[in-house]
Amino acid sequence: MMRELLSRRFKPGTAPDDYPDLIIVDGGIGQLNVLTHVLGDLQIADVEAAGLAKSRVDREMDAAEISRSDERVFLPNRKNPVVLRQNSAPLLLLARIRDEAHRFAVTYHKKLRGNKLLASQLEAIPGIGIKRRKELLRHFGSLKKISEATLEELRQVQGISATVAESLWKHLHENGKGDTNASPFVNFE
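The structure corresponding to this sequence follows.
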């Protein structure tokens, strides 16, 4: 995946002025090796690279205390990592960069999963397309509230005709097997 991502970023035809000065990868020496191979394959020599590896828990089975190794910075063509002083400004900066990358990735993947689950559940309802799904969610705010809405409340949504509202309401309540309090949706709140 790293190779694919880097190959897209540095696709042929990208102007050298568009290259970053430094690329920091999370994951240590393994990820750094992938980065340096891609840069070498693409004959890009002006980009500096580093790999940041988190500290590891070092615990002996019979030890009473848990100890951690230092965070390590791996550099190309260097066997041993650079170990920065604990709580030093460079280490804190690198750690914040790594943590922000993690936060961004986790948020992005949660959004993708949420949209996929949301879209797939509403897509199963006849007459509900993209625009109507968005309007229903904008109007009610959640899947749970859509499933709890009365027929009259569904009719009040912009872009939802009386026929579509009735179809939607029937779908919601028939999937609940007659229980008007049951929802075919998972509660994401």
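The beta strands are 22-26, 48-53, 57-58, 67-68, 72-74, 82-83.
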